[in-house]
Write a structure and sequence with these properties.
Helix content: 40-55%
Strand content: 25-35%
Shape: globular
Distance between the termini: 83 Å
Order of helices and strands: HHHHHEEHEEEEE
Radius of gyration: 27 Å
Number of strands: 7
Largest sheet: 7 strands, mixed
Structural class: alpha+beta
Number of helices: 6
């Protein structure tokens, strides 16, 4: 051997490694040329547990399905997500809000100077302080940039904040990110139009 083994366990591991390599080489030589995988990625993929391969296939399928979806359909899907978000606010639906908002979500509202609400604070605000009675998106626009989308709209709402009327029209800009097969909101910026 080219190197010195210091103890029995190291020698045992080295022998096992040599056996595995020689068996792998012998198996590769028995395959017809058309069936040889020939890449390290293929060897690693074969070594993965079956559930890891299934997860990879699901992620690849989600990406392929998204790639086949037309831009118009993606825009419609994002507007559905916007409506889902607002319905969750109206119904105080914690589960849906948690799904729609990314973990690093933040809200910037011109009516709250020098304040940016992170997801936890926003959920607290939305579920306890805000009462949304009705809303309407007016002329929403969706712009797609790969896995990022920007949705801008006038938002007319009937609402109250801590019992004080906060109804009116606002300009809302939402930033969405496509990740793990889902669109999630990462940012909302609100400017009052009154």
């Amino acid at each position: 051997m080219l190197f010195k083994l210091k103890n029995f366990s190291t020698a045992f591991v080295a022998v096992l490694l040599l056996i595995v390599i020689s068996n792998f080489t012998a198996a590769q030589e028995k395959k017809p040329d058309a069936q040889k995988s020939g890449t390290t990625v293929d060897a690693w993929r074969q070594a993965l547990p079956p559930e890891a391969e299934i997860e990879n296939q699901l992620n690849e399928n989600a990406t392929e399905n998204r790639a086949r979806t037309s831009p118009e359909q993606l825009k419609r899907d994002l507007l559905v997500q916007e409506d889902r978000w607002m319905q969750a606010l109206k119904l105080r639906d914690t589960s849906t809000l948690t799904q729609v908002l990314a973990d690093d979500f933040s809200l910037i509202d011109a009516r709250l100077p020098n304040v940016s609400l992170e997801k936890t604070a926003y959920l607290d605000f939305a579920l306890h302080d805000l009462k949304l009675a009705a809303y309407e998106f007016i002329k929403p626009t969706v712009r797609l940039y790969g896995k990022t989308a920007i949705v801008s709209s006038r938002l007319k709402q009937e609402s109250s904040f801590k019992g004080i009327d906060s109804s009116g029209a606002q300009f809302v800009t939402d930033v969405w990110i496509y990740n793990d097969g889902f669109w999630r909101a990462v940012s909302r910026h609100v400017s009052s139009l009154q």
